[in-house]
Amino acid sequence: MTPKVTEMNENPASTPDTSTREKSTPGAEPVLAIRDLVVELPGPDGSPLRAIDGVDLTVGRGEIVGLAGESGSGKTMTALALLGLLPQGGTAAGQMLVEGDDVLKMTPRQVRDLRGNRVAMVFQDPMTSLHPMLSVGKQLTEHLRHHKKLDKRAANARAVELLATVRIPDPERALGRYPHQFSGGMRQRIAIAIALACDPALLLADEPTTALDVTVQAGILRLLDRLRRENGLSVLIITHDLGVMSALADRVSVMYAGRIVESGPRADVLREPRHPYTRGLLDALPHPDGGNAALVPIVGSPPKLGQAPSGCAFHPRCPHAVAGCAEERPNLLALTPTHAGACPIDPLAVTASKVGTP
């Protein structure tokens, strides 16, 4: 029986090095610019239900942006709209610009050409994107021969290069192996290699570490950070885990019930959250020092599709909600030139008043 290939260390550090990151050039055209995106899906009776409601989002060149929120918040639906993969009957309106070209104005063929070439996606479970009956080499080389029109020898050489880039041990031999012969972390690296095959400008990573143990998660995050630094890759990472954001993202947008409720630089959003939902996600995380402090879950559940309450969609679950929260839906308010939140109540001030801080 062939032994399973398991995860290896990306480098000695436990988390990506955020001190030397290349930032996107100010004023340069972003790789991705989403403006006022609205996505509607057909309900049980055929009437449209709004899944995404006026989302704005940008990703600069060489930048990693995190899109965070609970399941059902609209994170993955945003990515599927970009790839033209909405569920049957779904519609998208607004603008989704990839390097200046509006995906929502493209023909179906142009969108197909976009997928895998200029925009690629890595999913939570690599076994959903890796064919269990085809060798890793077959899957990589077919992708390269179809999209890049390479001959067999050139495709094999490029496949070895890609596996080496994502740190698969003995890449030449790995070409002949099958997905089940690799560990979960190695399969995710292979999925990333396939996504990188056509040198995309933008990588969409949908919960890329959720199914992996903590050590393997760290290796995948370091890999994504290295690919950004070395190749100028732009990444939109989609996750429910703000801990992943703290290790990787340059900027973070928090999504709830189809809307962005907070957005800004990683440090601002995670250290000084200004929306109660962001605060709730952070309070629900295990303490980084491994202490025994009790986790504080967010009460209730996110609204189902088409059932968002009036006013602020989070108000039924919000510990700071007042009567007006159920009446008027707040827009994003500029807190600083780069940090915005969709809540007129300052949770920091509320917390301070509760503990008697003057």
Automatic annotation (TrEMBL):
UniProt region (Disordered), positions on chain: 1-29
Domain ABC transporter as annotated: residue spans: 32-282
A Pfam family assignment: oligo_HPY
GO molecular function: ATP binding; ATP hydrolysis activity
Cell location: Cell membrane
Origin superkingdom: Bacteria
UniProt-listed Gene3D superfamilies: P-loop containing nucleotide triphosphate hydrolases (3.40.50.300)
One GO CC term on file: plasma membrane
Chief location of this protein within or outside the cell: membrane
Membrane topology: Peripheral membrane protein
Keywords associated with the record: ATP-binding, Cell membrane, Membrane, Nucleotide-binding, Transport
PROSITE patterns linked to this entry: ABC_TRANSPORTER_1 (PS00211), ABC_TRANSPORTER_2 (PS50893)
Family designation: Belongs to the ABC transporter superfamily.
Listed NCBIfam families: oligo_HPY
Protein name: Dipeptide/oligopeptide/nickel ABC transporter ATP-binding protein
Species this protein is from: Embleya hyalina
